[in-house]
């Protein structure tokens, strides 16, 4: 090889990769994008889990109405759905007799440590008159 080819080889190898400063700038840009996108993604996940709980509550309320139509009252005991993110509770109200009731309240409270704990809507509820409740407005 001649001296000229060593210079060409040195020039080519010098431009073959990224510098440390360029990599740090790229990492900083990715960090900024992550910090902007992550809260929106977390909020989206909370909303989708809340919507799933609401659908479960509507399905449960529909089933309770079928029981009311057939039996003339809401049951004393009812097996509520199980969720990874919410604790569902069924409370019968206003007794007709020992086994059936005229009213109920169904609620869904976020489970602590489940990712729904910080949800602004908090505990969701629905009753026998389809009155919807939540810790803040705009949750249903």
Automatic annotation (TrEMBL):
BP-aspect Gene Ontology terms: type IV pilus assembly
Pfam families: ComP_DUS (PF16732), N_methyl (PF07963)
Domain of life of the native organism: Bacteria
TM regions (residue ranges): 15-37
Signal peptide: none
Alphabetic keyword roster: Membrane, Transmembrane, Transmembrane helix
Gene3D superfamilies given in the database record: Glycoprotein, Type 4 Pilin (3.30.700.10)
Protein name in the entry: Type IV pilin protein
């Amino acid at each position: 090889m001649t001296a000229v080819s060593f210079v060409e080889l040195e020039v080519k190898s010098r431009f073959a990769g990224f510098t440390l400063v360029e990599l740090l700038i790229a990492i900083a840009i990715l960090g900024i994008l992550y910090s902007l996108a992550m809260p929106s993604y977390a909020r989206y996940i909370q909303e989708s889990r809340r919507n799933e709980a609401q659908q479960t509550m509507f399905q449960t309320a529909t089933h309770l109405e079928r029981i009311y139509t057939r039996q003339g009252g809401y049951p004393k005991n009812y097996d509520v759905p199980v969720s990874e993110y919410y604790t569902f509770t069924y409370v019968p109200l206003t007794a007709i007799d020992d086994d059936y009731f005229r009213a109920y309240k169904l609620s869904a409270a976020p489970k602590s440590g489940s990712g729904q704990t910080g949800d602004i809507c908090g505990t969701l509820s629905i009753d026998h008159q389809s009155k919807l409740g939540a810790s803040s407005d705009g949750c249903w």
